[in-house]
Every structure is written in structure tokens, then in C-alpha cells.
Design goal:
Blueprint (H helix, E strand, L loop, with lengths): L17 H6 L20 H7 L4 H5 L2 H15 L4 E2 L6 H5 L4 E4 L3 E4 L21 H14 L4 E6 L1 H10 L7 H9 L1 H25 L3 E5 L8 H7 L1 H12 L5 E4 L7 H6 L4 E3 L6 H8 L4 E6 L8 H14 L6 E5 L9 H15 L2
Parallel strand pairs: 1-4, 4-5, 5-6, 6-7, 7-8, 8-9
Antiparallel strand pairs: 2-3
The protein binds coproporphyrinogen III.
Keywords: Cytoplasm, Decarboxylase, Lyase, Porphyrin biosynthesis
InterPro entries: UROD/MetE-like_sf, Uroporphyrinogen_deCO2ase_HemE, Uroporphyrinogen_deCOase
EC number: 4.1.1.37
Length: 354
């Protein structure tokens, strides 16, 4: 592990939080809750501060990042904040020509498909993302005992956007490269692992208490392909930040068949979508890891009693786990009623109070 410039472990003021205790599989005062995509379009206060500011620009303005990151903590009383950014921010920071198109997602001007294209993926230095260090400095002051989760996109999911040139249903160009030129594929994922590790280190050095690696689209792969073509790069990222002693969370959608391997890649906490009950997920992941999840985000559109019934089922399935962080099985949907989220936090806290 490279020379860390801060002592190992999360910042002391967040050490005893319910969130970090659950990640460490220690007893908790209540089950901690946060929501993937808790900051964003479901909140009117978010839409207000984002008016007229393009998505990527908002990620580079520390005062906006700080405000947007704090909004769901103030409103919902969640147990952790997640740094407001996007998985393509480090790629933009090293000069890749890309944008985030509203209602579409990340779009890359020139897709990466040939060996000479790799030259466009240079190393990321802390100076490339000085706004991240500045925003996290401000945030940790404001958050006090509430932990801040840093995050990055995992090599496969980043590669998918870079190779396809944008969002993709079937990832056909990505898979064509993976199967057709395994050497170039491995080099591409290794480049992305270095960039991702550097970006996570910046966030941890600045004060993040935990990190989450989003491999959102890796559920498109069979286990053998994951093991051979993706796991080495994801493991490299986790290894690179192991020495900091902050929990490492790993999440993807539709990854029921990959949960064991995603834990093996080096995660301390494995995120689970709503398709696999948490007790079954625990059997697949094995001992020594906490789980995060896994209420279907669409459940929040049902009446309150139904939301509580389904959240109760998640908590029942989690009853025997070594450590459980309550979350949705994927991000908050943009048209979710924010009051339903606030009530859900209250419900989980009350039902699990010890
Ligand atoms: O609160 C939080 O969770 C932090 C914010 C966050 C964003 N993106 C902000 C955002 C996080 C954690 C991400 C990660 C991200 N970005 C992932 C992994 C998580 C997941 O959902 O699986 C992925 C795959 C992306 C790529 C991406 N960026 C997509 C698919 C989209 C949505 C496109 C759309 O408009 O529907 C984006 C844009 C984006 N990232 C928005 C936000 C708030 C919406 C843009 C806006 O508000 O104008």
C-alpha cells in the first residue's frame, strides 16, 4: 500500500456512528440507513440550486457540492451522506471529452475501442480534482459525527460508458472488446483501476469515512467472465485503498450470481439489489462481510403501510446478518415522494432501536 498521509481508520468524530459500526459488523444502537442517489431530483431543494447549472459543472463547484450533499441529511436524517458527484467526474478531470445529458446519462464524444485510444486515459492527480478536496474539507466540518461516503465507478462500468460511447442496454461493443481482444481489455481495465484508485484516495485523504465502488452494470456478465475479465481490476482498486482502514462497499445491479465474487474482490460490505433476499445473499457472500440493501426503490410509490410491510420484510431477512446497512436495491427514482423516504428512515430507526 502506498504511503498514506493520514492515520488509518475513519475520521475519529465518525468512528462510533451506527453506519460505521454496522460496516465493521459491531453491535449497533439501530440499523443505519442511507439511500443511493439520496441527493438529486427527488428533492425540490436540489432542483432549485441546480437551476441553470449543468450537471458536470455542479460537480466542480465546492459550495454547490457541499449544499447538495447535505440536503438529504438535513431532510431525511439518514445515517450517512454520500458525496455529490458522478462516476464520470474523474474521467472528465483527466480530459476525456464527455458530458452528462439530462434524461440520458454520460455520453462520450469519441468511444475508446482501439489500443491507441488508451493514451487518452492518463493518470489522475489530486490537482486534477482540487474541488473534491475542498468540498470534502467543508463537508466533514458540517457533518460532524455523520460519516461521508466517497465513491467511484468500478472499472467495468466505466469501461462500458467509454467503449459504448453512452448508456447501453446490451453492452455489445464492450463485450466485443472483452471477448475479442482480451489483452487490450485487460489493459483498459487496469488503466481505469489506477484512475479509480487515485480518485478514491483523494476522497479518503480529504476525510471520507467509507467508500463505495459502483459496478452498476456488471450484472450483465456471467460469473466466469467476471472472475477472468473484471475481478482483477476491481481487486486492484480495493487493494489500493485497503491500508486506510475505511470500509469498502461494493454494489451492482442484477448481481445475484456475482455476490460471492464481488465480496472476494475485496469488499468489506456487499451491496445487494432487491432480487435476492438478504438472508440468501448472506449465504452467497459467506462470513466476514456486512451487507447493504435492499428495498426495491419502486416500493416507495406504494401506500405507506405497504412500504413499511416491505421494509419489514427486508429487516426480517437481515435479522441474522453480521452487519446490515439498510438501503434501497438501487438508486432513488427521480419522481419519488421525498416524504416517503423520510418516513422510511424513521420506520427503520424505530423498528430496530435496541
Ligand atoms: O446522492 C447520490 O447518490 C450521489 C450522487 C450520484 C450521482 N451519480 C449524481 C447524478 C451518484 C452516486 C452517481 C453515480 C452514478 N452515475 C452511477 C452509479 C449509481 C447507479 O445509479 O447505478 C451511474 C451508473 C451513473 C451514470 C449516470 N449519471 C446516470 C445513469 C445518470 C442519470 C441520467 C438521467 O438524467 O436520468 C447520471 C446523471 C446524474 N448523476 C444525475 C445525478 C443527480 C441526474 C442529472 C441531473 O440531476 O441533472
Amino acid at each position: 500500500v502506498s504511503a498514506n498521509t493520514r492515520p488509518p481508520g475513519p475520521p475519529t468524530q465518525t468512528y462510533d456512528s451506527a453506519f460505521l459500526k454496522a460496516c465493521r459488523r459491531e453491535p449497533v444502537p439501530h440499523t443505519p440507513v442511507w439511500f443511493m442517489r439520496q441527493a438529486g431530483r427527488s428533492l425540490p431543494e436540489y432542483l432549485k440550486v441546480r437551476e441553470g447549472v449543468p450537471m458536470l459543472e455542479s460537480c466542480m463547484r465546492p459550495e454547490l457540492v457541499t449544499e447538495i450533499t447535505l440536503q438529504p441529511v438535513r431532510r431525511h436524517k439518514v445515517d450517512a451522506a454520500i458525496y455529490f458527484s458522478d462516476i464520470v467526474v474523474p474521467l472528465k478531470a483527466i480530459g476525456v471529452d464527455l458530458d452528462i445529458k439530462p434524461g440520458v446519462g454520460p455520453v462520450v464524444a469519441e468511444p475508446i475501442r482501439r489500443r491507441e485510444d488508451l493514451a487518452r486515459l492518463r493518470d489522475l492527480t489530486p490537482d486534477d480534482v482540487a474541488y473534491v478536496t475542498e468540498a470534502i474539507g467543508a463537508l466533514t466540518g458540517e457533518l460532524g459525527a455523520t460519516p461521508l461516503i466517497g465513491f467511484a465507478g468500478a472499472p467495468f462500468t466505466l469501461a462500458s460508458y467509454l467503449v459504448e460511447g453512452g448508456p447501453s442496454r446490451n453492452h455489445e461493443n464492450t463485450k466485443a472488446l472483452m471477448y475479442g481482444d482480451p489483452g487490450l481489455w485487460a489493459d483498459l481495465l487496469d488503466r481505469l483501476a489506477d484512475i479509480t484508485a487515485a480518485f478514491l484516495k483523494v476522497q479518503i485523504e480529504a476525510g471520507a469515512s467509507a467508500v463505495q465502488l459502483f459496478d452498476s452494470w456488471v450484472g450483465a456478465l456471467a460469473p466466469d467472465d467476471y472472475r477472468r475479465s473484471v475481478m482483477p481490476a476491481s481487486a486492484k482498486v480495493f487493494d489500493a485503498v485497503a491500508g486506510y482502514g475505511v470500509p469498502r462497499i461494493h454494489f451492482g445491479v442484477g448481481t445475484g450470481e456475482l455476490l460471492g465474487l464481488m465480496g472476494e474482490a475485496g469488499a468489506d460490505v456487499v451491496g445487494v439489489d432487491w432480487r435476492v433476499p438478504l438472508d440468501e445473499a448472506a449465504r452467497r457472500v459467506g462470513p466476514g462481510k456486512a451487507l447493504q440493501g435492499n428495498l426495491d426503490p419502486a416500493v416507495l410509490f406504494a401506500p405507506r403501510e405497504a412500504v413499511e410491510e416491505q421494509a419489514g420484510r427486508v429487516l426480517d431477512a437481515a435479522a441474522g446478518l453480521e452487519g446490515h446497512v439498510f438501503n434501497l436495491g438501487h438508486g432513488v427514482l427521480p419522481t419519488t415522494n421525498p416524504d416517503a423516504l423520510t418516513r422510511l428512515v424513521e420506520y427503520v430507526h424505530t423498528r430496530t432501536a435496541r
